[in-house]
Amino acid sequence: MMKRFLFGVLFSLWTSLAAAGVNCTMPFTFVPGTLADANQVNANFAAAVACFLNAAGAGNNNDITALLALTTPLSTAQGGSSIYIGGTSTGSANAQVIAAPSPTGFALTRGLSILFTAGFTNTGATQINVNGTGLVNLFRQSPSGPQALTGGEVVLNDLTWAIYDGVQFQLVNSGAQYGGFGPLTSLSSAAPDLGTIASHNITFTGNTTITSFGSSASTTFPLYRLNFSTVLVLTHNGTSLILPSAVNITTASGDNAEALYLGSGNWQVISYQRGVGTSVVSPTPLCGFSGLNVNNGASNSVINWSFNNSVLINPTGNVPVFSTAKSGSINITTGTGGTSTAGGMDGTGPGNNTFTYMYAIYNGTTWSAVGSVTTPATGPVMPAGYTFLCYMGAIKTNGAGNLYGTRILGNEARYVVGGANVTQLPVVVNGVTGTTCTATTPTYAAEAISGSTGAAPLWVPSTAVAVDLLANSQFSGADSAAVLVAPSGPTTYNGFPVSAANTNPPPLYALTTSNPSFGRLLLESASIYVCISSASGAVHAYGWKDAVNAN
């Protein structure tokens, strides 16, 4: 039994060595059926052990991948590792050196890689020199193929792994942008082809209108994150640039979006977020103010304005923008030379006996205001860069082009007696007007009262929805008059007959025995209808309610 055991052990050792590809010679050969001498057996054991010990050192085994006796590393084809371990890189931020990696023998062979600790944070295009093979470009992986580094991809003290692809090294991981959109990279809106840069994380500069994000982007990785640092217009066209709600978007600083490349130069913005957190578009946008206060006091040319909160819109894109308290002024003597000027006029002076329509404006950074002779139905010529606006009221000039003293609170406007060029409440009409004012059926005379340009009696802007009037029966002299004022005519309302009941009086009147009477008429047209029985009667305008969304 002992013989059989010893023979089995030797046979097992022998076959194991043979299977491993190790060629060993035993000093004795044993023949079945014969006695084995103990010395011979011991000699064969000793030879087998020696063979094992000498096999790796002799380089006789290509199948063994990790033996301490090897002085030359196995190739990757032989089962050796393709990863070389380096220390901390030296050199400089954008020309880093990795000397004497382990194992030895690194060469610029496709598939070999180097793992090292970054000794610097790179600041731009970067090269590495591994094992003295010379500086070679270090690129990062991108949806558009290997791309040069731009800075920040290799970070001080981070483990950095790069694989040689036969031309350059490629980062296996690329720092902060690993798994993301890449580093934030600036791109001019004048040349907005996203495929021309490596990153999918773009901040746009400039103010050029964008109708597409170009045709060279990758459809394999089609998603891009966009940031806007300026005011510009994204134009919806349903093909090359599909926008939310199918309307144009005027960007503001801090806005963000995600765009999906559809191929063939076509893009869809799948999300858009305002930097201030407001809605992107509104199908029925409204602008307006809370705490609106506009007045010129004693000034002939400067209008001061303020509000507590506001919503302005871009008329083209139906885009609202919100603000907290703002204030400023409009000087009607500036911005009159054909160039619209923030804080002045929109290129045209107000002239004489003309209403200046005032608009709060915004350019994505600065809140201001501009005056215009153009009504809100059309709007002003905007100063360069300004796209958001909201109408906030109107003030009239006199025959010398100077402002009438006016105060506007919300949508209510009043002429201020004692203010600039207002010594008394403006007179719409005085003296005998119309006929038979005290008869049952008087004849009313139409008096124009609202408009944009014209001398008295135009005392309220064309945007006014109501006018505040005073019926004065004792405007001049000791005589007294019957003063009748109505929003329509000529025979809609009764007069004041002495001997008959007054079943249908006008909304506003003053009789010979009455004091002046104040009232508001909703404007049914640009005129009011007046009947004054004698020279002592008059109708005064002291204010109006404007079509301003404000309080």
Tell me what you see in this structure.
With 551 residues, the protein is mainly beta. It folds into five domains: 1-79; 81-177, no CATH class; 185-273, Jelly Rolls (Sandwich), CATH 2.60.120; 296-415, no CATH class; 427-546, no CATH class. It has two helices and 36 strands. Strands 1, 2, 3, 4, 5, 6, 7, 8 and 9 form a nine-stranded mixed beta sheet that branches. Strands 19, 20, 23, 27, 28, 29, 31, 34 and 36 form a nine-stranded antiparallel beta sheet that branches. Strands 10-11-12-16-17-14 form a six-stranded mixed beta sheet, with no helix packed on it. Helix 1 (2-19) packs parallel to helix 2 (38-55). The radius of gyration is 45 Å and the shape is rod-shaped. The protein starts with a helix and ends in a 5-residue tail after the last strand.
Structural class category: mainly beta
Task: Round the Cα radius of gyration to an integer and report it.
Answer: 45 Å
Shape: rod-shaped
**Low-pLDDT segments:** 60-66, 175-179
For the biggest sheet, the summary is: 9 strands, mixed
Fraction in helix: under 10%
* Tally of alpha and pi helices: 2
Mean pLDDT: 85
User: How many structural units, i.e. domains?
Assistant: 5
Strand portion, in percent? 25-35%
C-alpha termini separation = 114 Å
Number of strands: 36
Keywords:
9-stranded antiparallel beta sheet, 7% helix, Jelly Rolls
Helices and strands in order, then pairings?
Elements: H1 2-19, H2 38-55, E1 83-88, E2 90-92, E3 95-98, E4 113-117, E5 126-130, E6 135-140, E7 147-148, E8 159-164, E9 169-171, E10 185-188, E11 201-205, E12 223-228, E13 233-234, E14 241-242, E15 249-250, E16 255-263, E17 266-273, E18 288-290, E19 293-295, E20 302-307, E21 309-314, E22 319-323, E23 326-331, E24 355-362, E25 367-372, E26 388-396, E27 406-409, E28 412-415, E29 427-430, E30 445-448, E31 464-472, E32 483-486, E33 508-510, E34 517-522, E35 527-532, E36 538-546
Parallel strand pairs: 1-4, 3-5, 6-9, 10-11, 11-12, 14-17
Antiparallel strand pairs: 2-3, 4-8, 5-6, 6-7, 8-9, 12-16, 13-15, 16-17, 18-21, 19-20, 19-27, 20-23, 21-22, 24-25, 24-26, 27-28, 28-36, 29-36, 30-35, 31-34, 31-36, 32-33, 32-35
Helix pairs in contact: 1-2
